[in-house]
Design goal:
The longest helix has 18 residues. α3 links the parallel β5 and β6. By secondary structure, this protein is of the alpha/beta class. The two termini are about 30 Å apart. The radius of gyration is 17 Å and the shape is globular. α1 packs across α10 and α2 packs across α3.
């Protein structure tokens, strides 16, 4: 594990293929997730010669809980800072869920740095819901039952194939949600308003939206994927036997798709 110094804390990240010379790939997970969900992407791309940095969100995993903002824009600034710290050029950024919004923002703000983006089950706009829904969510996430509820919900979002090492991932989440300060940070990430991502031009290597066919976060996953693709001017890859976490559930589909994207970066550099 490595740490990136930021103005109000540190971001934890794993670096795969540190000695490789291929393009840098920065992976950003979603809320109440751990960087370990990108373990297959990291290993797969590192084996193909790329450097892969999989980071934790603020307050998640092993990142510090001392930050004053936990939004998708905050995550975008951390992803940019990480890419710069590692000397990245023509960087590919991969984001899941809230992380999808973060890398889209990063691509919009730093086209000189970000050459390609892949959005996995991305939330580019706030989920639909009314006052009652939000109230029920806040009740569900109250202590002492909130951590168990989030872990169970995370588990259920893996509709379709169960990833290898899934129990280890769930245990990492339980450990993450146990300390009061860390749970408070995760709670803020869930409820702190993020921005709706609009006006993202095409990255130099294009953009790819990867969506699980069984992703229960949306009534119509394909429709949401197509809308997200229209925002980033990208293409859509629907993944069978997969819910919200394609990077863990179907690395056999995701890793080759990311390699193709990274190859476009090399060709266009």
């Amino acid at each position: 594990m490595h740490r990136l110094d930021r103005p109000r804390g540190r971001i934890a990240y794993d670096l795969y293929g540190a000695e490789n010379t291929g393009p840098l790939v920065v992976c950003v997970p979603g809320m109440f997730d751990h960087r370990h969900s990108f373990r297959f992407v990291g290993a797969g791309l590192a084996g193909a010669g790329y450097r892969v940095a999989a980071m934790d969100l603020r307050g998640h995993g092993d990142s510090d809980t001392t930050f004053d903002a936990y939004t998708n824009r905050a995550a975008a600034t951390d992803a940019i800072a990480l890419a710069e710290e590692l000397g990245g050029r023509d960087v590919v950024m991969v984001g899941n869920s809230l992380g999808g919004a973060a890398v889209a923002i990063a691509a919009r703000e730093r086209p000189d740095l970000v050459a390609g983006i892949a959005l996995l089950g991305p939330f580019l706009r706030p989920p639909a819901g009314n006052v009652l829904t939000r109230t029920l969510q806040r009740v569900a996430l109250m202590r002492p039952w909130g951590p168990a509820f989030l872990t169970s919900y995370y588990d259920k979002l893996h509709t379709g194939r169960t990833p290898e090492g899934h129990e280890r991932q769930l245990e990492l989440l339980r450990q993450m949600l146990r300390p009061t300060d860390r749970y408070r940070a995760v709670h803020r990430t869930v409820f702190e308003p993020g921005e709706t991502v609009t006006g993202v031009g095409a990255s130099r290597a294009g953009a790819l939206v990867i969506m699980g066919e069984q992703d229960s976060d949306w009534k119509d996953p394909r429709a949401e994927a197509e809308w997200a693709a229209s925002v980033v001017r990208g293409s859509v890859l629907m993944v069978p036997e997969c819910g919200h976490y394609a990077q863990a559930q179907r690395p056999d589909v995701v890793v080759p798709a990311l390699r193709s994207l990274a190859e476009e970066v090399v060709a266009g550099a």
